[in-house]
Design goal:
single chain, alpha/beta
């Protein structure tokens, strides 16, 4: 097993990882939800993610090929007990093999739920094909429905393309269509109100996510980011919100019924009300690194293992060891917190 240390020491577990059974860590959490980044490339330049000029993308030879990726997906589902696979990026729609990988994933048995998180650029033309490939659901990132604000946040004038993609996803039956929003520190509370009205009108489900320290420039500041409590208070000035009483389980969003329902809004308080104790996620980057947390300071290199002849049993053992070493929480609120070296675009959402 190749472990890449990204700069901050972490305590190693005192006992080895189990060789079979659920993909478990030392705190008893079972990882059944796999987040797979297909590429670090993106066609937007969101201010909270990357600089205007973009980033140095990973060389193509460092990325997992379709066959390598499908092999790891098979191990995750058939050996490690993964039941849900979400494809992310970067922007996954720029990955040419997306539909083929989705089809191969839905052909696995037991069949996992397969979902996608996208910025919606190009979705209008591909939504129907994604559905035919077996995609179950889709999340579209959209931080505002104001044209000027969208252009300022993303540095691209593409709001009409995103809205067309949302309509196409709904028409293709990729329901429930969810909208993921990260709010701008200045205009975000107004944007939240507009987004919720938009989603209610069109039958989408809004999820508002606290901005996390995952930007490429490491400019995130706790005092500038809008917290979940402020979002809730702003929405309550315009809507009657009542707690949804359905069991939350490991879902990151706290749900609220809007004006008596059936519409709902979710608020994901990743920073201010962390839910790490219920985390059920494991992550695979586009270059084949297992990360046991968004904010992990170590990665386990499955790509290198595969390319040097490791069999499926060795890959499974390395994945299990990576998850066994997962920390109790992301540590954002600890005084010695260090932001990951990799930005969100390289880790996967």
């Amino acid at each position: 097993m190749t472990v890449v240390d990204l700069g901050v020491p972490s305590a190693a577990p005192s006992s080895p990882a189990p060789v079979a059974g659920p993909l478990i860590d030392t705190f008893g959490r079972v990882a059944t939800d796999l987040r797979v980044s297909l590429t670090d490339r993106c066609n937007l330049r969101c201010t909270y993610c990357m600089p205007a000029e973009g980033l140095d993308w990973l060389p193509s030879q460092q990325l997992l090929g379709p066959e390598e990726l499908i092999r790891l997906l098979r191990i995750a589902v058939t050996r490690l007990g993964v039941t849900s696979v979400r494809f992310t990026g970067g922007e996954p729609l720029v990955a040419r093999h997306l539909e083929d990988v989705i089809a191969a994933t839905t052909a696995l048995r037991p069949r996992p739920e397969v979902t996608l998180t996208t910025n919606g650029i190009g979705l209008e033309k591909r939504a129907a094909g994604l559905k035919r490939a077996g995609l179950d659901r889709i999340n579209v990132s959209l931080d505002t429905v104001d044209v000027a604000r969208f252009a300022a946040i993303t540095r691209r004038d593409r709001l009409s393309d995103v809205l067309a993609g949302l309509r196409a996803a709904h028409s293709a039956g990729l329901d429930p269509v969810k909208v993921n929003a990260v709010l701008d520190p200045v205009t975000g509370l107004d944007d939240a109100v507009g987004l919720l009205r938009f989603c209610l009108d069109h039958g989408y489900q809004l999820r508002i996510i606290e901005q996390m320290p995952l930007d490429a420039g490491h400019q995130w500041q706790r005092g500038r980011a809008i917290g979940a409590d402020d979002v809730l208070a702003a929405l309550q000035e315009h809507f009657d919100l009542t707690p949804d009483n359905a069991p939350r389980g490991s879902a990151p969003a706290e749900l609220w019924c809007v004006d008596g329902g059936p519409g709902k809004v979710g608020i994901i308080a990743s920073v201010s009300h962390a839910f790490c104790s219920a985390c059920d996620r494991t992550r695979l980057t586009a270059d084949g690194q297992v990360r046991n947390c968004l904010f992990a300071q170590q990665e386990t290199d499955l790509r290198q293992l595969m390319r040097t002849g490791a069999d499926d049993t060795a890959l499974e053992a390395a994945w299990r060891a990576a998850m066994w070493a997962k920390a109790a929480g992301h540590g954002i609120n600890d005084p010695d917190f260090v932001q990951p070296a990799r930005p969100m675009s390289a880790i996967g959402g």
